[in-house]
Amino acid sequence: VFSSVTSVLNMSVFKDQFVLEDLIQELKKKSTALSFGPLQSNGHISVQGSFPAIELLRDFLLLKAKSLSEDKNEESKSHQRPKKRQPQCRLTTETSNFVHDAKGKEQVVVLDTDVYHYMKKFLSKKFLANTDVVISDITDGDITTLYLQKVRSRPDAGQILRVKEQIECQSIKLHDTLCKERIYLEGRIRDEKQKYKSVCESLKSHYPYVLVIPYDTHIDVIGNSSEVFEFTKEVNK
């Protein structure tokens, strides 16, 4: 396990759209867990910190680069929500329609998909309690992108930003504590697969903070490392 890693970012790709020094300051405020070196004349800058924090920074920059490309190619649609970003599910149990706020304010968070599933199951009420924020998501393999918006316009303009910061801080903590075990079902007959899924279901009450996600070919078990170990041990008895 790497406690700290160093990465060199090439920021020159943003020089036509941003003042690089200002963009670096934005990154420093966003990623307080990282240490930034001086910006070089060629646009390179070194960044040091934990691997999960580096990953979050990378995903944020990739998303920013992608959004710039989309804005350039679809300038006429810049005030519309792209069809591909229709909400698939939310970090809330509400069923009301997704609505833009008056100013179209939106915040974006990029998460590890396993961390997102865990947060959605156990922490969504904590983040969204007493807020007008709704969250839609797009999952692409190991990465899930969240889009945060308000359903009603209220004086508290910083509400979305606070929810975003809470999600980001919690995701970094979970990166350090969560682990995942996969129980493979491939090659097993239907009755055996059902038996494994039934055992997992029966164990949930004994492991209330372990997330179980069943698929046709495998079962993912996500949670604290010691609890995940004990859970999978029980399943494989």
From TrEMBL:
Protein name according to UniProt: RBM43 protein
What PANTHER family does this protein map onto?
INTERFERON-INDUCED PROTEIN 35/NMI N-MYC/STAT INTERACTING PROTEIN, RNA-BINDING PROTEIN 43
The highest taxon in the source lineage is: Eukaryota
- Which region ranges are annotated with the description Disordered? 71-91
State the gene name recorded for this protein.
Answer: Rbm43_0
